[in-house]
Amino acid sequence: MTNTRFDKPFTQQEAIPDEGIAAAVEILRGGRLHRYNTLAGEVSEVSLLEQEYAAYQGAKYCLATTSGGQAMQIALRAAGVKPGTKVLANAYTLAPVPGAIFATGGVPVLVEIGRDWHTDVDDLRAKAAASGAKYLMLSHMRGHIADMDAICAVCDEFGITMIEDCAHTMGAKWRGKRSGNFGTVACFSTQTYKHLNSGEGGFLTTDDPELAARAVVGSGSYMLYGSHGAIPDEDVFQRVRLDSPNCSARMDMLRAAILRAQLRNLDANVDRWNARYRALENGLRGAAGIRVPERAAHESYVGSSFQFQALGLAGSVPALVAACAARGVDIKWFGADTPQAFTSRYDSWKYLGDPPDLPNTRSVLSTTCDVRVPLTFSVEDCALIAVIIAEEAARLGAVQAAE
Ligand SMILES: *Cc1c(COP(=O)(O)O)cnc(C)c1O
To answer: 68 CB less than 6 Å from ligand 1?
Structure first.
């Protein structure tokens, strides 16, 4: 055993690429920061980004927004969610998701997760049948993609419209198909810790022309929607343009410029994230007290964060978190009774009313640990992080993790 400390910050992202910085400086010099503030004949950076992201995603239409949460809110409304509409949603997710559903007046119907953090398909079917809900907000939380064949089958069976929350699956695929192309509409985040970084920001993609038009107008396009980059024909807008409330969630030129530069590197960065993920996985697989999930061969995930279950440390997960923190390793625990920093559990979203009883989700989260994997860490850094976690688990007397 060692007492090596890890000394890099878990919140340090890479610099914006030089070409993105140059493009941003040019925009600042020009003073035209709003997406509709263009010279005659000029195509805005935001519209170019929308075209490029639509092409990357393989979707017909794309809208760039001020956040992933706003993209979700706009997507839900554009898909038809109104006050009182029930929306199925997996209970393990981040606070922007219940927040977006609540903001539309939708009523979340929370669904259990299983031990690999995937949405529990049996519970989804049971809740779909019992609630009559016609919408599903599916969060691919921390990049773990559930059995999409089974989820799509439930949606078909009950006539459910699926909205995918791809905040952690931008760049990921399931059986060769991009995450985000399974449902009717997908939402992405470019918040600073996601796969593209504009501080705040997001996208919505869809192949549905009416939904796209409603989303564009709803994002606050005034009557300038015609200048957008990846939109349906004018006649579609004529049908919907007076029916979509403006929620002023337009992406601006600066963010678009720095995102365009990063999008070109996205696939290369996916490989870099996964090399780091594998170093953590290899270092922790078989460690006392720790269970590392087996990822399905057909799940092409993006390892921008790493999760494990401290199954053999029942009751002492906070002690593991503290011991690792003392050696410079930040672990987030999803089992805490009170929300902390970025994490919260479904029963702390009090504005939703009395939380449902979800014993499986609570049990899985009680041992769920989460580690950020910024690209400023090397593969060797990730191997060292795994050593530190394994040593501290052993020191706490972790027993073999039950399978
Ligand atoms: C980050 C995130 C979002 C969107 O978040 P914003 O901060 O609003 O961009 C949505 N869902 C999950 C699971 C997330 O982690």
So the answer is: yes
